[in-house]
Design goal:
The complex is a heterodimer.
Chain A lengths: L2 E4 L2 E4 L14 H10 L7 H17 L5 H8 L3 H7 L3 H9 L10
Antiparallel strand pairs in A: 1-2
Helix pairs in contact in A: 1-5
Chain B lengths: L7 H5 L8 H9 L3 H16 L19 E2 L16 E5 L9 H14 L3 E4 L6 E6 L4 H10 L15 E2 L13 H11 L1 H5 L9 E4 L8 H4 L2 E7 L4 E2 L1 H9 L4 H4 L9 E4 L4 E4 L9 H5 L4 E2 L4 E7 L13 E7 L6 H17 L6 H8 L1 H8 L26
Parallel strand pairs in B: 5-6, 6-7
Antiparallel strand pairs in B: 1-2, 2-4, 3-4, 7-12, 8-11, 9-10, 12-13
The chains are: A mainly alpha, B alpha+beta.
The structure holds iron/sulfur cluster (SF4) (2 copies).
Chain lengths: 105, 395
């Protein structure tokens, strides 16, 4: 597994850049991951999404469905893509330190 | 002594008179290391009897949640040129019409950024571009956009819709499949590029019940061209068929699934009880000079079809027996939106539309999309006429 130098610490990530150990996540790390996903600055809006994702994940062990994410945070899908140009799965979930979503291609 | 082949198993697939993907990959391997490594890994897979692609992978381009599928080799040290070998799905034009100029440009872009290997076309209908490293994805997408191509669907979104060749080449077409496809694709760009559903959703369009894109077997929402008046019969041509040796009784009338045709061999007269005809196209296929679809054309909308992933295969069944299909297709687009809204609200992760209807019931579904139950929705109305009415309605 590649090691990435993020925010001054070495973090293990998979080939898509998702962190391997959810416990290694921190807000500093999120900011570093965000840069990789074309998010220059994490604003309040970003944090709202990230925190929702983390809370949901900690409670249920999976990422929420996109519809739920939009409903609960109040951002429609367009707004989510404006915040996270690489989308909710590749962008938001990665920055929030969730494991890589699996799904059907 | 001739050099021993490194791919003896794959070489066998070059034998015989038919086209061979091995031959094509070998040709590409003369130009690209990635194609060379692809051959090596595939040979390894045949030896090891296991695929050497890792499962899943999330890659993409800016603003899009679908269209690129992550592929990583699990033997990156051995086959470094395919360590990252991602797939692009590129939205094909309606009914796959290209100019050679466009195809050349497409291949130039792909030679520049990827392995040069294409698959025209994948099961979804898309142009499949096989094998690009992560760092080339965005640049490749930008170049594709410059020559007028866009990505198709992947993941839990509306998959790239597809249609049969329709009126472009086929006299049976009851609707303009090509234009409808274009309109649907443009209307649902968000749903195509930004996955938001419980699972994938497919729309396929055939111009008649011959269903050349297999919409009924493969799509959640199938559109099948049809007519609601009577089959047009040219009596003189019917007689011509009989005179030239066609056994109309056994080959046409007896094979009519609803038994609604009468053939009078003496008078050479074919009579059709159009009220019983289910528009299956059989008689028209056999006697296309004598019989044609009616004049009042439109489409039947069916729902629920899918291939057998997760749960078993389903064929679509009728939702709207007849809908006029004229631009801008507002009635159809609105219906699709209502269907998705209900499915998205109620569907579990990885549950297709047909499965959800089976789980919650047709009655609930019809209420939600605002359609009244009609006999055509019953899969075998002649054998099984049951419908469970809402208890409120039969008080
Ligand atoms: S589905 Fe019907 S209209 Fe379309 S190509 Fe086939 S025969 Fe022709
Ligand atoms: S279209 Fe099919 S059902 Fe209708 S008359 Fe012809 S064979 Fe019979």
């Amino acid at each position: 597994m590649p090691l990435l130098d993020l925010a001054g610490t070495q973090v293990e990530v998979d080939e898509d850049g998702f962190i391997q150990d959810p416990a290694s996540w921190s807000e500093m790390l999120a900011a570093a991951l965000a840069k990789m996903e074309d998010v220059e600055n994490l604003t309040e809006d970003h944090w709202k999404v990230i925190k929702y994702l983390r809370t949901y994940y900690q409670q249920f062990g999976i990422a929420p469905m996109v519809r739920k994410l939009c409903k609960e945070t109040g951002y429609d899908l367009k707004a989510i893509y404006e915040l996270f140009p690489s989308g909710p799965a590749k962008g938001a979930c990665k920055i929030a330190g969730l494991p890589k979503p699996t799904g059907c291609v | 002594m001739a050099k021993e082949s490194k791919t003896p198993l794959l070489d066998q697939l070059e034998e015989g008179p038919w086209p061979s993907f091995v031959k094509e990959i070998k040709r590409a391997a003369q130009k690209k290391d990635s194609a060379k490594d692809l051959l090596g890994q595939l040979e390894r897979s045949y030896n090891d009897r296991i695929g050497h692609w890792k499962h899943g992978g999330i890659v993409g381009v800016k603003g899009y949640g679908g269209g690129v599928i992550g592929r990583y080799s699990d033997l990156p040290e051995e086959f470094p040129a395919i360590a990252e070998f991602h797939t692009f799905r590129v939205n094909m034009p309606s009914a796959w019409f290209y100019t050679t100029d466009k195809l050349r440009k497409l291949c130039d872009v792909w030679d520049k950024h990827g392995s040069g290997l294409t698959n025209m076309h994948g099961a979804t209908g898309d142009i499949i571009l096989l094998g690009a490293p992560t760092e080339e994805l965005q640049a490749c997408f930008d170049d594709l956009s410059d020559i007028g191509f866009d990505l198709g669907g992947s993941g839990s979104d509306m998959r790239t819709p597809s249609c049969c060749v329709g009126p472009a080449r086929c006299e049976f077409a009851c609707i303009d499949t090509l234009n409808l496809l274009r309109e649907v694709t443009l209307e649902f760009q968000d749903e195509l590029h930004r996955p938001m559903f419980p699972y994938k959703s497919k729309i396929k369009i055939s111009g008649c019940a011959n269903d050349c894109v297999a919409a009924v077997a493969r799509s959640d929402i199938s559109v099948i061209g049809t007519w609601r008046d009577s089959i047009q019969v040219d009596d003189a041509e019917v007689a011509n068929y009989a005179n030239s040796g066609l056994d109309i009784q056994s080959e046409v009338a007896d094979l009519c699934p609803t038994g609604c045709m009468k053939w009078d061999a003496e008078a050479k007269k074919l009579t059709i009880d159009n009220g019983e005809c289910n528009r299956c196209m059989h008689c028209i296929n056999v006697m296309c000079k004598a019989l044609r679809p009616g004049k009042e054309k439109g489409a039947t909308i069916l729902v629920g079809g899918k291939a057998p992933i997760v749960r078993g295969a389903l064929l679509s069944w009728v939702l709207v027996p007849f809908m006029k299909m004229d631009p801008p297709y507002t009635e159809f687009k609105d219906l699709v939106r209502r269907i998705w809204e209900w499915w998205d609200e109620n569907g579990k992760m990885r549950e297709r539309l047909g499965e959800l209807i089976n789980r919650l019931g047709m009655r609930t579904f019809l209420e939600a999309v605002g359609l009244p139950p009609v006999p055509q929705m019953v899969s075998m109305p002649r054998a099984n006429p049951y419908y469970f009415w809402d208890p409120e309605e039969v008080k």
